[in-house]
Amino acid sequence: WGRYTQFTRDGEMPDSYDTWRKRAPMLHSLSYDEIVDRGLVFVGTPETVLNGILAHQRQLDIAMLVIGFRFGGIPFDMATRSMRLFASEVMPKLRQRQMSAHTASVA
After folding, report:
1. Residue 98 Cα distances to 21, 102, 107, angstroms
2. For 50-94, how does the pLDDT look when each residue is reduced to its tens digit (9 = 90+)?
3. What count of Cα atoms within 13 Å lies in the side-chain half-sphere of residue 100?
4. In sequence order, which residues have a C-beta less than 8 Å from that of residue 93 and are 6 or more positions away?
5. CB distance 32 to 2 below 8 Å
6. Rounded distance between C-alpha atoms, residue 68 and residue 76, angstroms
7. I need a surface site. Which of 16, 29, 30, 47 has the fewest CB within 10 A?
8. Distance between CA atoms of 96 and 80, rounded to whole angstroms?
9. Coil, strand, or helix at residue 70?
């Protein structure tokens, strides 16, 4: 993210990114910390990520979530650790809540 904002602030952004910038002017103007603070990305412990996903699901009734674990300069081993934590700590709880909601709606 830092490299993206560096290029946009210095006017060095490739022309191919211009369409994206026009579609997301608010996002373009935010720093990484502002993006995290506004809940636009989920960063933190498995519990923090789970709570963020659940909050978005309640507010937006999301049916699909696209997740990226390796961006910027994040080392491969850190991204792998995040994926494993997500798979072992977050996904089972999301699945359990989904099954409970389905059971409640059928009953």
Report:
1. 35, 6, 14
2. 999 998 888 887 777 888 888 777 899 999 999 999 999 999 999
3. 6
4. 50
5. yes
6. 12
7. 16
8. 24
9. coil
Burial of residue 90 (CB within 10 Å: 0-12, 13-18, 19+) is: buried
Q: Convert 41-75 to b/e letters by CB count within 10 Å (16 or more is b).
A: ebeeeeeebbebbeeeeeeeeeeeeeeeeeeeeee
Q: Decide: pTM greater than 0.70.
A: no
Tokens of residue 92, six digits? 């089972």
Q: What is the CA radius of gyration of the chain?
A: 17
Q: What's the one-letter identity of residue 82?
A: S
Residue 74 corresponds to which tokens in the numbers above?
């994040």
- Structural tokens at position 7: 């290029």
Q: Token digits for 93?
A: 């709880």
